[in-house]
Structures are given as C-alpha cells and as structure tokens.
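G.,

No rush on this.
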Amino acid sequence: MEIRYATPRDLERIMEIEALTFPAAEAATREIFAYRIEHFSEWFFVALEDSRVVGLLCARPSAQRRMTDALYEPAELPAGDTLALLSLETDPARQRRGVAAALIRHAIGKARDAGMRALMLACKAPLAPYYEKFGFALLGASASAHGGASWLDMALALRRE
C-alpha cells in the first residue's frame, strides 16, 4: 500500500468512497473536499492499492481543543497545534485490511514531525474502541452535531503540556 497526498485528480474517487461510507446527511460535498485538497493539502492523504485510491484521511490544524461543526466547513479558522481529523474512510471492498490503520499511523507521524500538540476527532460510539487502539482517549460528548448525528470527541496527546 502506498500513502501520498491527495490531489484534485483524486476528487472523483474520493467522492465515490464518500458515497459508499457515509449517509447523505453526513457526507461531505464535492466542494468541501475540493476546498480541503486546496487548503489542507499537507493534511489530506490517500491510500492506494494497485494505483487506485482505496482510502483517505483528511485533517486540518486547529486552535480548538474539541470538535465543532465549523471545522468541517470550507472556511478559514485559526490554525493551531491540534490536528482535527475530519474524514477517515476506506472503500468497503477494502475494509478490514489495515487501510484505515495505515492512514491513522501516517497522520500521527506527520503530526509529530510537524510539532503538533495533539490530534482530535469526533466519532460515533461504536468506533471509540477502534481509535483507543491508537492511543486516543475519550473526552465525552461532542459539541458537533454534524449531519444530525451524536458524536463523541476523542484526543491523542503527542507531547506533554
């Protein structure tokens, strides 16, 4: 498996995976992904198998310490030393083969290299144990109501305060 930065050429495949992995109410639009590729390219990774995108992880630096709906929107927000994970997706035909784990480890390594303080994310309750395997700690209910769903905030400290 190869992991590289996402490019505008990947947008169609990214949208295919988005449609396969998220309900319409929670799915990001083409415009949102295009914005993320343009503005957070150093934090938007794709995983490839046989030269085909099979997974993605996109994030953005944030000054916030908890997830909010504003982080998901295509808008300028103060950047900081916390990396907010916005999307982690694997083509359902490639799930349970380590694609998401490889993307998470890649993002953690890049965040450490960049001197980030922490990573944070919002997930649904059934996924919390998965993220705990990577060292993320449950912070509690999220302020985010993205897509009308209930989310939990989790964080991974990369350095001591």
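When you get to it, here's the other one too:
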Amino acid sequence: MIAVVLILATLLILGSTAIIQTSTDIKISGNYRRSVQSFYAAESGVEEARARLRLGATNAITDSNPTNANWTAYIGTSSNAQGKGYNSGNSNHVRVDSINTDPNIVYTVKIQHAVSGSNVLRWGDSNNDGRYERNTTTGQIIYVVTSYGSYGNAQKALQVEMSRQPPVTVPGALYVEAATTIQGSSTNVIGNDACGGTNEPAVVTTLSSGSVRINGGPVIIGASPTIQYDAPNMDVHAMIDGQKGFANFSYNVTSETQTASQTPGPGDGWGVPVAGATQQSASTCSARNIVYYNTNNTFVKLSGGVQGCGILVVDGNLQLHGGFNWNGIILVSGSVTFLGGGSDTKNITGGIVAGGSVDADIVGGNANIVYCSSAVNNQTQNRPLRILDWHDMSF
C-alpha cells in the first residue's frame, strides 16, 4: 500500500510538472509569435513610408518643407498618431491614413528629417569625388522613419534612415583621368547646359595643364574655365559599383563588337533618343535604363547605329563606331574612343565620365557631347529610396 501511494504521488508530480511545462511552452510560443508578428507589422510600416516618399509614387507623401528641421509626417489613424506626438495644430506636422487594409497588420509611422543641429542632413556628393556622404548642402534629404508595429499585446519599433537616390556626379560634358585628344572640325564638346541649368566646363580632368590636346579645330565651349585642369579625382570604380546593381540590361563580354541589331546586346531595346533641332542640340528621352557591360578587363565596341537612354556603364574600355546616340550618362572605368567620321554622327546628350589606368582618348569625327543637367539628374530620381541605416528600437 505504501509503495502504491508513493508511485501515485510520483506520477501526480510528474503529471503536474508536464502540464506546467506544456502550459509554459505554449505561452512562450504565443509570445514569440506575437513578437514576430509585431516585427513584421513594423517592417510593413517602413516599406509603406519608403514607397510613398518615392517621387511619382501613388498616394505620395509630399515633403512641403524640405529645409525645415521640424517637419514631421505621420502614417496612421489620428488617435494612434497623437500617441506618437502628432499635433493637428502644429503647422510642421502632417498626417495621412495608411493604405494598409489588413486588420491584422497594425502600425503607426513617424517620418522626420535627419538633422545636424538646425540643419537638415542630405545624402549626396558634396566634394565631387563620386562618393555619397552625409552633408548639409548637397544631394537628397535623409529621412528618419520610425515604425511602431503591434500584434496583441506585443510591440516592436524599427527606426530606419533612408534617402532618395542622388544624381550621378557629372562635373562637365566630359570628365577624364588620363591624357585626352579631341580632334576634328566636326567635333563638338559643349559644357553649356542645353537643358536650362547651370553651365559646366566642357572638359574636366584630374591631370595638369596640357594633358588635353586639341587638334583640327573642334568646338569646345562651356563655363570658365572651358577645360578645367587639376580637378578633384573621382572614384569612378565606386561610381560603377553603385550603378551596376540597378542594371536592367547586363552583359558579360571579352573584346567584343556589338551592333544595333545584336541580341543579347543593343537589340534588346535600350530606348530611342529623340534628336534635337541640330546635331549640337540636346536630345530627349523618357526611358531610364541602366546598361552594364563587364568586359573582363578588355573592351566592348558598339557599332552600326547603336542607341539608348539612361546610364551606360562599362567595366573596361568603350569604343564607339558608326552612328551612335545616347541620352543620359556614359560611365566607363577605362578609355572611351570615338572611331570613324564622315556621315557617322555620334551624339551624347548628358555627359561622359571616364577613368581608370589607361588613356581616355576622345578621337573626333562628327562627335557631339552636349551637357544636359536633366539628362543627368533624371536617371536616378524615380528609384526606390536607399536604406542608409536600420535599428531595432525595441531593445
């Protein structure tokens, strides 16, 4: 009898422990699930803010005071926004309802300008070296987005810094880092902004005076100095790395010639620039492609009427032969060489940035390089905002 009682007592204790343990595990599992759900809700708030801050977005959030350090926007109901600091009587505050319609995803978002003292911080290239950094003068506004997600009694808060993509740095119609020759009476390098912005030099080089050679009477005009020597050295490789990840056309070649009809290649359809009134006028184009060539340290030759719009990015050397038309930016790690003359007109509206360790020879013959600020700036303005920093504020 005593043994039976002891066994029953032991079984009772074991059973109770199992029940308690199971109950605890269920609670832990439930708490974890709610924590994960609230985290996902907070992430959804971040992505809604990111989407609605994008230029041209549907249901866009308009930043009406881009230089105001106190501007703040809220996404969420009026009561939830008030809990995060929203004051309808404050002219610096704006509130919009969320576009989220899922009742199980609940979040409130607070959007502010990143500031340094009383100055709004920007993400851009303030020293013309091709790299973006935080500064107070140049580039796109940095937004601090704090998203508060909840699920049941669980809450998560994420804080993210983000910015629209700044324009690619193009300091003149032509930027080079090696000795350059511009020749031919039918060659035009024009730094005066054909699209109504600020005039720039025709040629910008990091080398000393005399490194740009002029033969045969080409037309070279632009802001003073028309040829700017000893310019800041831009990190062209970093600029290429910053653009090629966005490419919607990517090619891997080795010492290859590509023609207008070739696919994969120019025949894939890179956009069609609309020519200006004259060969020296700016072209126009609404397409914004990024075309990337990895030449494996060799070259790609574009020949026979190649055309396109956007950013042409070449890791290696670029040769242009026959009729060639581009609206946007040409970004090359090595040399750019114009081949051929006669009626084979080559037109670039926007600008060329060429660098690397080899000569960047612009050898003319019906070559027109026309600086156009909108053809430069428009290439990046509609991209999704870039995430600069990310923090989980729940801990």
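The longest strand covers residues 306-321. Residues 37-166+384-392 form one domain.

Enjoy the weekend,
O.
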